[in-house]
Amino acid sequence: MPDNPLNIAVFGESNVGKSHYGAQLIGRLNAETGMLRMRGAALDLAAFDDVVQSLSGGVPGAHTAAGSYTETILPVVTEAHVAIDLSWPDYAGEQVSSLLDERLVPASWHQRVEAADGWVLLVRPKSAPLVDDIFSRPLGDLKSSRPEGFSIECSSQARLVELLQMLLYTRRSRTGKVKPALAVLLTCWDELKLPEGTKPAEVLREKLPLFASFLGNNWDESDILIFGLSATGVSLTKESPNKDFIFKGAEHMGWAICDDGTQTTDLTMPIAELAKTVHD
Ligand SMILES: Nc1nc2c(ncn2[C@@H]2O[C@H](COP(=O)(O)OP(=O)(O)OP(=O)(O)O)[C@@H](O)[C@H]2O)c(=O)[nH]1
Ligand SMILES: [Mg+2]
Known about the structure:
This protein has one domain (6-279): P-loop containing nucleotide triphosphate hydrolases (Rossmann fold). 36% of the residues lie in helices and 19% in strands. It has ten helices and nine strands. It has helices at residues 18-31, 49-56, 94-102, 107-115, 139-144, 156-175, 200-207, 209-218, 243-247, 269-279, and strands at residues 6-12, 36-38, 69-78, 83-91, 118-123, 181-186, 224-230, 255-257, 263-264. The protein has a nine-stranded mixed sheet, with helices on both faces. The protein starts with 5 loop residues before the first strand and ends with a helix. Bound molecules: guanosine-5'-triphosphate and magnesium ion (MG). Residues 18-19, 63-64, 90 line the site of magnesium ion. Magnesium ion binds at residues 18-19, 63-64, 90.
């Protein structure tokens, strides 16, 4: 096993499923059924306690409180004995909004942005509808189609491009390091109601074409992975707790979609595949 474990860091805007994926991943690691296993001693997993507890009762966890920032390091190992320190932040997604609005990467993020060998970006396609913006229609047209004084905002796709550009700039300017390998996880895949076998890269191209072409133009094909993820498998509501979560256990719920469109219950797969890409 190498002395220095690989470092993988997770990013995502508000409400994309960061906390629920973190909680479900911990469940899978504890169940020891997937491509990744824990290595090392018990950890402080307090940041995910609330969501883990809510899921075991079949209800969704709460949003991460604004202003909170914790980082959980999950020491894991792949089947090929590659050690990884998975840095799972639990920050309110609003931090990303203020990062974009203020055009400033907070100091608390620098270490993760700079040190990571691989980045995981969570994107929820249902919350990123295709809308016209300055990239798809002339500014004059946009202005005339909106009431007087209406401000024209960046589309969700443009925000994602902006986020990655800011992270890349911070990394390059402070360390001179090249781009890390990147895994884009299209979250809440169940919401998209897609036919079985649909490939994540096709969904990215169809639902987020601008973002897809930015990725294609900036990353080598061998350094980018696109997966689907449904951390809970279904939409949960507080009003009617999901019986499968209660009786089967949250560790049996949720699935991911591999790049060839096949479904797997192994929620550790996207991270394990990214580690392979980084390590090879
Ligand atoms: N349908 C469906 N809903 C999901 C899934 N994963 C998470 N959700 C829901 O999406 C919402 C947001 O999930 P969170 O994990 O709290 O998202 P977050 O990125 O941590 O959000 P902030 O803490 O606000 O930054 C919650 O209502 C979850 O129940 C999924 O796989 N499928
Ligand atoms: Mg959260």
